[in-house]
TrEMBL record:
Domain of life: Eukaryota
Single GO MF descriptor: oxidoreductase activity
Name of the protein this chain belongs to: Dehydrogenase/reductase SDR family protein 7-like
A Pfam family recorded for this sequence: adh_short
InterPro entries reported for this sequence: NAD(P)-bd_dom_sf (IPR036291), SDR_fam (IPR002347)
A cellular component annotation (GO) from this entry: membrane
Keyword check for Transmembrane: yes
Classification via SUPFAM superfamilies: NAD(P)-binding Rossmann-fold domains
Keywords: Membrane, Oxidoreductase, Transmembrane, Transmembrane helix
Sequence similarity: Belongs to the short-chain dehydrogenases/reductases (SDR) family.
Transmembrane feature ranges: 29-48
């Protein structure tokens, strides 16, 4: 019987399928073999994170710790006061307005009965001469500080060329020199005890700069640099440092921002209104505290991509920011995000 002309083609097809199947099989084995050493560290890391996300374990890690929070009268600071108080810590609330702090204190005691009564500490980060004394007062309350949360600050809206130098100084002192002065006043006592955790609430603008935020971005870049350096210098000790970089959060930051001539901005930016809930940000920060993380970025995909573009492709980043600046200026929306 003669062989049909289709049979060789059929045989070749079978051989090709067998070869492809073998290549896929060995490829899977190869990839699996390479990935296997990474599986265990990945599992350990996720178990570690889930451990501190569990409120029971997290609260045990933080219970009775002394936590000093600046900017505790509103926004992220107030949300942090709630989160730390619920975790059983001894909270010291610090901000400029004592009456606002007393309201937060009353709110905490009403909502979350605890064996610890929050302490109130009037503190103006812009008044550098008083910070050392306020730090001593804070230390005298419980004898030490376990966690220092540098959260207080001020925002800014305006064009660099039209901004009074006094405004640049005000923003820089409040956002940078104030937290640095407070940290330097508290740090020696932490080193004596060889224990402590310092949090610097910076901003995603501490990593990238956007148009019409020159004073604010500069202060946050300085904050990022100082606390990154401090983190390295303290690496031989048990005093840890964490820099938190939030994106937009639903606070009054834009309402209370200063403009180029020093006046209050007084507008709720839409990006701020649509931002992360402060309680969500506080929850992430308290988890980072329990886990003693060195960095925390609280921002969506777009800001994270912008940070990557700035590092990997600067020309593209500045092209995009230039386009943004021209668009906002043309629309007379310099003050808007």
């Amino acid at each position: 019987m003669s062989m049909s002309k289709e049979e060789p083609a059929f045989e070749y097809t079978n051989v090709f399928q067998v070869v492809c199947s073998s290549m896929i099989h060995w490829g899977r084995l190869l990839v699996g073999g390479l990935a296997l050493p990474l599986v265990f560290p990945w599992l350990v890391y996720n178990l570690y994170r889930s451990h501190f996300k569990n409120k029971i374990f997290r609260n045990r890690a933080l219970e009775d710790k002394v936590v000093l929070i600046t900017g505790a009268s509103s926004g992220i600071g107030e949300a942090l006061a709630h989160a730390f108080h619920k975790a059983g810590t001894r909270v010291i609330l610090a901000a400029r307005r004592k009456d606002a702090l007393e309201k937060v204190k009353e709110d905490l005691m009403t909502k979350y009965p605890s064996k610890h009564t929050p302490a109130v500490l009037p503190l103006d980060l812009h008044d550098l001469k008083t910070i050392s004394g306020r730090a001593k007062e804070a230390l005298s309350i419980y004898g030490h500080i376990d966690v220092l949360v540098n959260n207080g600050g001020i925002s800014y809206r305006g064009e660099a060329v039209d901004t009074d130098l006094e405004v640049d100084l005000r923003v820089m002192v409040t956002n940078y020199f104030g937290p640095v002065a407070l940290t330097k006043a508290i740090l020696p006592t932490m080193l004596e005890r060889n224990s402590g955790f310092i949090i610097a609430v910076s901003s995603i603008q501490g990593k990238i700069a956007i148009p019409f935020r020159s004073a604010y971005s500069a202060s946050k870049h300085a904050t990022q640099a100082f606390f990154d350096t401090l983190k390295s210098e303290l690496s031989h000790t048990e005093v840890k440092v964490c820099v938190v970089s939030p994106g937009y959060v639903q606070t009054n930051l834009s309402l209370n921002a200063v403009t180029g001539d020093g006046k209050q901005y007084g507008v709720m930016d839409q990006t701020t209104a649509d931002g992360m809930d402060p309680s969500e940000a506080a929850e992430s920060i308290i988890i980072a505290t329990a886990a003693q993380r060195s960095e925390l970025i609280l921002a969506g995909t777009l800001p994270r991509v912008a940070v990557l573009i700035r590092a990997m492709c600067p020309w593209l980043y500045f092209y995009l920011m230039g386009s943004r600046a021209r668009r906002l200026r043309a629309a007379n929306l310099i003050k808007e995000d």
